[in-house]
Amino acid sequence: MDDQVISRRLLLKRAAALGLLASTQRFLSACTATSLLPTTQTGLHASTLSGEVIDLLIGETAFMVDGRAGIAATINGTIPGPLIRLQEGQDVTIRVTNQLMEESSIHWHGILLPSHMDGVPGVSFRGIQPGETYSYRFPIKQSGTYWYHSHSGGQELRGMYAPIILDPIEPDPFQYEREYVVMLSEWSFESSEVMMDHLKKSSGYYNFQKRDAREFVADAARLGLWSTLRDYVMWDEMRMDPTDFADVTGSIFTFLMNGLPPAGNWTGLFRLGERVRLRFINAASMTFYDIRIPGLTMTVVQADGQNVQPVAVEEFRVGPAESYDVIVQPTEDRGYTIFAETLDRSGYVRGTLAPRTGMEGKIPERRVRPLRTMEDMGMKDHRGSHSAHAVEKVVTQPSHDHDSNHNMDHDESSHEMIRQDNHGSSHSPIPGIIPIRHAFDHHGTGNQTVAEYSQSRMHDPGRGFEHSTRRVLVYADLKSLTSDHDQRAPEREIELHLTGHMQRYMWSFDGKKYSDTPEPIRAQYGERLRLTFVNDTMMEHPLHLHGMWMYLENGSGAHLPRKHTVVVKPAERLSVVVTADASGPWAFHCHLLLHMEAGMFRVVEVSTNE
Amino acid sequence: MRHASVNVAYRNCRVALAVFVLHVGFSLTSAWAESKHEHMELDSGPIDQIGPLQPGSRARETEAVPEQWPPPVHDEKQRLFTLVDVLEYRPGSGGGKRREDYRWDVEGWYGGDYNRLWFKSEGQQDTAFKADYDADFQLLYGRFLWKYYDIQVGGRMEAQSFRGSNVTRGLGVIGFQGIVPYNYEFESALFIAQNGAVSARLSYTKDFLLTQRLIFQGRFQTNLAIQRVEEFTTGSGLNNLEFGGRLRYEIRRKFAPYIGASFERSVGETATLVRRQGGDPSQVRFVVGVRMWF
Question: Among A372, A305, A256, which Cα is nearest to A549's?
Fold first, then answer.
C-alpha cells in the first residue's frame, strides 16, 4: 500500500512538473535531460550542460539499486546530476527550479563566487522554496574539477550531487588523450534524519565490525592473553570504541561509482597506450574512500581542482567533498579495476577501465578493518612511529635545518611559527610538527575527549595503511604547481578545536554546536589569516571553507596547495592560510553530512567595514 | 541561437510533447499558482532579480545573516527515545513454590542534547525483594551535566501489595546517570518518600559482544534504605543484591529476544520482611524476554 501511495505521489509530481515546464516554455530542454524517464539514468553522464544559461530541475525520481526502488532527490532526474562544463573566464546563469515539496538549494562546491550566489540556506540566501526558480549568476574565475550539491538537510545523500568541469584558458600543464569523471557516492534507503535518530540513540548502530569475543580469542592467540586483555580493558576504561571509523557503514550503504553499484561495474573505455585523466570526486555524505587501480600507477595532477606538481602514487585516500585528478596509462589489453574501498573496510565500489565494453578486472582482496591507536588519542607516551619519523625527516633535510632547529628550541607552549622569510622558497615549517600540549580547556559538556598532545600528521597516510607496501598519497606530497602571488605571512591566527561526543552523537567546534554560538568567525577583507585546526575527536573530519581557498601549510613553501576541503586526522594539528578576499558570510563546516547537521558548522564573516 | 537549439530539442521530444498535451489541462491550474517566478522569465529577457539579495549591495552582503532565514543546520531537534531494557517472563520454579510471573524495566526521554524529560518504570512480582508485586513510575527532568553524565530531578510513584492490599506512595527523586569508566552504564537515584523515608537504588549494566549480534548483558542492582518501611518491605541498611545475565540476539539493533538468569537475594531486615509476607528472599530464576528500543 505504501508503494501505491508513493507511485501515485510521484505520478502527480511528474505531471505537475510537466505543466510547470510547459508554462515556462522550457520543457523541451528538460525533456532531453531525461526527467521523463521512469527511473534515473546512471553511468556516465546522461547529459553535459554548457553555455551561458543552464537550467536545472530538482525533483523526486525513483532510483533502482540492486533490484529495489527508492525515492531519490535528483537534479534533472539523474544520479549523479548532469555534468556542468564551463570555460574559465565566461559568465554563467544557472536557473534552478525546485520541484520538491520542501526547501532546496544548490551549492557550487569549490567555486569562487559572490557570497549570495553560494547557495547555503541560512547563510547566503533563503533557500529555494518549493515551486520557486532561483537564478544563480556568477563569473567563472578558475579551472579544474569541482562539483555541486544540495546544501539542504539530507538531500545530498538522497542523490543531489553532480560534477563540474571548468576548462582552463591556458592549456593544462599535463597531457592526456581521454578523460572521465569518477564520482563516488553512496546510496541508502534510510534518510539522513533516520540515521541521525539512530546514532543519537545508539552511536554504534551501524557498526557491525566491533571487537567481539571471537576477535578477542584470535588476538589472545596472536598477542598473548595478558596484553590482549590489557588492551581491551584499556579501551573500555576510556569509554571509547577503537573500531569507530565510520558512523554509517556498508551495513546500509550501497556504494556508488558514477551512480552505479559494484555490480553495475561502471566502465571507462580506453585505447591501449592512451593517457587517461580520471577526475575523482568524492560526493559521498559519510564515506572516506581509498582508491587504487591495481596494475597502474596514478599520477596525481590536481587536488581540489588545483594543479599540483605531479606525484606518482599507487593509492590515495579521498575524504568527502575532496577531489583528485589523476592520469593513468593502461597498456595491457585487459580490464583494470578501479577499486574504491571505504576507510572502515565495510564495503567498496568498483568500476573498470577497459579497452572494450563488458570486461572486468580482478577485484582485489578486501582488507581488514583497522583499529584506532594511542596516536589517534593524542597520548604523549604512545606517539606513533609515523610522526616521529616525520619529525626526523624534516630535521635531516638540509634546507630545513634552520627552521627545524628553530622549532625544536621552542618549548611546547609556544607554537607561534609565523615566519616572514618564506618568499619563493620551496620549503616552509609545518605548524604543529612538534607535539603541542592541549590547554586546560576541555571544551565543555558536549565534548568527550581532548587530544592531550596534538601534532601534524601530514606525512601519515592515515589509519588503515599501517601495513601497506604501496605508495600512498599524503598531504605532504601536495605542492602547488605555481606559486601564489600572495606570499604574505599570516597576520593573525585562529585556533579551532574539532570537538564532539560519540556516545551522544554531538559534533561541534570548540565544544559549541551551531545552535550554541550564532557568533561567526570574523575576518577583515584582505586579511591574511591562519586557521589552525586541532582535532580532539577520534574521527577524521573533512573541513570545508566556502568562498576562499585554504592554503594547506604542509611545508611546501611558496607552493602551498590550495584546497577547499582538508581532512584533519584524529589528534592532528593542521594549519591553513586564508586570504580573506571574498566579502560576506561564508559557511565553514565538517563535510560529513551528519556531523554538519549535528552542529559542526560555523559562519565565517569577511567584513569590508573598518 | 537559443531558438535553434530549442528546435533541435523539439524534434527530439515529440513523444514527450504528446505526454505533455495529455497532462497540461490537468496540471495547468496548480502550475500557474506555483510558478509566478517562471512567468516573469517568459520573455527570456535579462533577469532583473538575482536571488533575494541585490548583487553589488555590499552593505547587505556584510550584514549579519537575516533572522527570517532558516538555520543552515538543524542541530536542535527534539527526539523521543524509549528503551525496553527488560520485558520478560519468569517461569515458576522450586516445585511450584514460586509462581510464574513477569517483569519490566523501561526508560526513555524526550528532548535534545542537553535537556530531556525522562520517564522510567520498573515492575516486578515475586522477586527476592518484593513478595507480591511492585511497580513504579518516574517522571524526571534531566540535564546533560558533564561529559558522560546526566542529572535528573523529579518524582516517583510506587505501588505495592502489602498484606493483600494495595499501598502507594509518592517520592522525590534525585538521579545521576551515565557511563562510568570501563563502559558500564550506570544509574543511581536517591528517593525521599512523603513521610521522609530515604532510600536509594543503584544499577549497572554492561554489554559483552560474543558476536556482532549475540550480546551478553551483565546486570547488577541494589537497593538501600535509611529507615525501615514495612509496607514497602524495606529494611534499614542494604536491602537486596541482584545479579543477572541476559543473552540477546539482535535480529535488528532495535529488537533482540533474550534468555537469561537472575540471582537475587534480600538481606538483613528486608529478608525478614519478605519472608513474613510469604516471599522467598533468595532466588535463582530463569528468564525469557525481549529487549527493544525505538
Answer: A305
- Report DSSP letters for chain B, one per residue: -HHHHHHHHHHHTHHHHHHHHHHHHHHHHHHHHH-HHHHHTTT-------SSS-TT-HHHHHSPPPTTSPPSS-TT--EEEEEEEEEEEE--BTTTTB--EEEEEEEEEEE-SSEEEEEEEEEEES-SS-SSEEEEEEEEEEEEEETTEEEEEEEEEEEEEETTEEEEEEEEEEEEEEEETTTEEEEEEEEEETTS-EEEEEEEEEEEESSSSEEEEEEEEEEEESS-BGGGTB-SEEEEEEEEEEEEE-SBTTEEEEEEEEEEEE-HHHHHHHHHTT--SEEEEEEEEEEEE-
Count of other CB atoms within 10 angstroms of residue B192: 17
d(CA B254, CA A202): 10
Model pLDDT for residues B23-67, shown as the tens digit of each residue: 433 343 333 333 333 333 333 333 333 343 333 333 344 445 566
Average pLDDT, chain A: 87
Q: Which residue has the higher pLDDT, B242 or B163?
A: B242
d(Cα A602, Cα A520) in Å, to the nearest integer?
6
Q: Does B59 touch chain A (CB under 8 A)?
A: no
3-class state of residue A171 by DSSP: coil
The one-character DSSP state at A561 is: P
Q: Write b or e for each residue in A291-322: b if 16 or more Cβ atoms lie within 10 A of its Cβ, otherwise e.
A: bbbebbebbbbbbbbbbbbebebbbbbbbbbb
Strands A53-65 and A68-75: antiparallel
Burial class of residue B114 (count of CB atoms within 10 Å of its CB; 0-12, 13-18, 19+): middle
What value, to the nearest 5°, has the Cα angle with vertex A202 and ends A199 and A207? 75
* Residue numbers of B between 122 and 161 with CB closer than 8 Å to A: 144-148
pLDDT higher than threshold 80 for residue B219? yes
Report the C-alpha gap between A278 and A44 in whole angstroms: 13
Nearest CB neighbour to B35, from listed A24, A137, A447 = A24
Instruction: Kindly state whether B46 is in contact with chain A, defined as any CB-CB distance less than 8 angstroms.
Output: no
Structural contact between residues A444 and A508, judged by C-beta atoms closer than 8 angstroms: no
* pLDDT number for residue A1: 36
Convert the pLDDT of each residue in A532-566 to its tens digit: 999 999 999 999 999 999 999 999 989 999 999 99
Which of A120, A212, A214 faces B72 most closely, judged by CB atoms?
A120
Q: What are phi and psi of B222, to 5 degrees?
A: -145, 150
Is the pLDDT confidence value at A382 over 90? Answer: no
Chain A residue whose CA is closest to B146? A445
Give pLDDT, residue A380: 66
Whole-structure pTM value: 0.84
Q: How far apart are CA A318 and CA A306, in angstroms?
A: 15
Which of A327, A328, A266, A192 minimizes the C-alpha distance to A44? A266
Residue A45, pLDDT > 60, answer no
Mean pLDDT calculated for residue range A395-405 = 36
> Which of A493, A463, A415, A480 shows the shortest CA–CA distance to A571?
A463
Provide the mean pLDDT of chain B: 82
Q: With beta carbons less than 8 A apart as the criterion, state whether A372 and A240 touch.
A: yes
Is the predicted pLDDT of residue B9 greater than 70, yes or no? no
Measured between beta carbons, which residues in chain A are less than 8 angstroms from residue B47?
A: 93, 135, 137
Cβ distance B32 to A513 less than 8 Å, yes or no, reads: no
Residue A162 pLDDT level (bands cut at 50, 70, 90): very high
Distant-in-sequence, close-in-space partners of A321: CB < 8 Å, separation ≥ 6:
A109, A147, A282, A283, A542, A544, A564, A565, A591
Q: CB-based contact (8 Å) between B18 and chain A?
A: no
Q: Which residues of A180-214 are buried (b: 16+ CB within 10 A; e: fewer)?
A: bbbbbbbbbebbbeebbbbbbbbbbbbbbbbbbee
